[in-house]
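In these records, each integer encodes one residue's backbone shape. Here is one protein:

___
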Amino acid sequence: MVWKKHEYEKIPGTYVFDGKTSHAAYPLNKLLFSFNHEENRQEFRKDPEAYADKFGLSAEQKEALVNFRFLEMLQMGANIYFLAKLAVPRGFSVQDAGAAFQGITTEEFQANLDAKAEGLTDKLEKAGYWNG
């Protein structure tokens, strides 16, 4: 299949989930989606490599999966919502996953969130959106 280049591919730090990436990552996303069922999560916990083999992952996808390298999986075309199905049941917080997606520490991610939140309540109150 021939994929057309898009302008959005040039956006720095952005990993676009489009036809090209989703096509290449179909086996990985199918595996991640399987975590909707507890029995699949248990099977993965017992033997991650064997579970990955059932879905025909590439060597790179399998390596990133079994080592919980979220940013690499995202760059390979993993669906971010499906990645949550891998992260959260393994004790990763949303902040841990966000940090991994950005390639920074959880503490750096939390500091970034805090910096962006500074003055937000005042802005929301002034605009009439804050009711908390």
Observations:
- The chain is about 65% helix and 0% strand.
- The first helix runs from residue 19 to 24.
- The chain has a mean pLDDT of 86.
